[in-house]
Amino acid sequence: MKTELKATREGFGAGILLAAKQNPAVVALTADLAGSIGLKKFKKVFPERFIEVGVAEQNLVTVASGLALAGKIPFATSFAAFSPGRNFEQIRTTICYNNQPVIIVGSHVGLGVGEDGATHQMLEDISLMRSLPNMQVIVPCDFEQAKVAVLEIIKKPKPTYLRVNRQKSPIITTSKTEFEIGKAQIMKTGKDITIISNGPMLYEAILATDELKKQKISAELINIHTVKPIDSAAIVKSAKKTKRVLTIEDHTIHGGLGSAVSEVLSQNNPTKMKIMGMNSFGESGTADELYKKYHLTAKDIVSEAKKLLKR
Amino acid sequence: MYESYLKEKANDIRIDIIRMIHEAGSGHPGGSLGMTDIFTALYFRFLKINVKNPSAPNRDYLILSNGHICPALYATMAHRGFFDKKELMSLRKLNSRLQGHPHRESLSGLETSSGPLGSGLSQAAGLALGLKMDKKNNHIFCLGSDGEHDEGNTWEAVLFAHKNHLDNLTYIIDRNRIQIDGRTEDVMPLGSLKEKYLSFGWGVIEIDGNDMHQIIQALSKALHERNKPLVILANTMPGKGVSFMEGKYEWHGKAPNDEETKKALEELERNEQKS
Asked: What ipTM goes with this model?
């Protein structure tokens, strides 16, 4: 595991360049945020495939839907707070109900946004997007996984939500790491407790797993990068083994990864669970300060895991 | 197709619109009847389409933004030969291909789903841009309402179309001056849409949207060489053809009962005999 730091939004930027080279139908849209969401190079290399809509997120996704009608594979990018935050209905009707192959890229998610504060720290996007029929929801854990995810998505274009982050985070996977949409990634096997996460938060979960090991607790770590369609079989298999499941996400506890996991378990294999995440708005601060304040660090995972084991 | 043929055809379509909304027990007669002449002219004269191959790549596109007037769209499509006219009576019924608001995946020949207002023009603009990128010659017509200019999304599209010089895009606005809560100029005054569109850099043609001759002239102009997006402001009479519906915002979204349907059909059938 390298300790090089790169943001998943940069991974998306690298991925879409490769995707565009592979497939001439790939186009990219921005709502006045090209530089922030990894499209600076794309704009230079493929100017005729780069579409600037200005600060107009409703138009962003509906124009993308129209481009899909013309045979394109559009990546409609913006900050998640605005897309899907602002344009949820247009995504629902013109992309999902129309079943158009548009990829909504929601960047700057979670507390990781930092200093911009609560209005820009989107904490509800996974809840929103996984509730939509026909929509697949992918949350890459690092730069490499974000890049690979883009290339996998264009193999079978369909309505997709791709969640990426502002902050630089450790690279956990490599370009050779297996990635299959809809398939859980078992990072570590264990028998005492299952820890499930995704996105850059997965790194905190890795640190927690290592610390638990020192304390003689064997944790199984699973990366659920695809929240929808979720790999129910892998979750149930692990829960049957460990009988304790803890989830953590840089997202609200209402309706995100933890909720999706609990839906699987409550209906197939009721298991004692702990869902870690946010239950309020965020605020300004550095990402590190915020994760500490809102108890979403490796230390907090260790503490909650031990509490869960006592239940 | 000659003007007189188109007028007759439009009247036939109006008869079916009344029948199908009555059968369904709900629906939107006002705008549907008001826009029938324009639908007829598009489908029977101006749209390059192939009913046997609705997804032919060289076709012209019609994007209906104000999806609630789909009875007019469905009836025109049926008369044009996309499907059997008998199927019109299945409007809004369970398992019908004719959903209450158009669903793209339900009926071949529909280009998009619609109902929620304000996003049709954006989709049409995206489509127009995508086709331009590939140097295609298809023309895109988008039909929308004056009421949906209350939605910000509409204006985002207006700006976007001008920026991208979408000269393969024609937006036809049903300027019938009504919406659910009353007259447009009372609910949210739109004023002069002509001046507004001119100031946004669009070309503007204003017509009587129920005068087939003016419709034909405007649509001919739309398909000629130009360098900017074009809007056809069609001043229409909502409920056109049925005297007790004409001009009344109450008939925006109400189905006629048995008595009212009988009266409406008598009027329309009389009109047919006149021509």
From this structure: 0.95
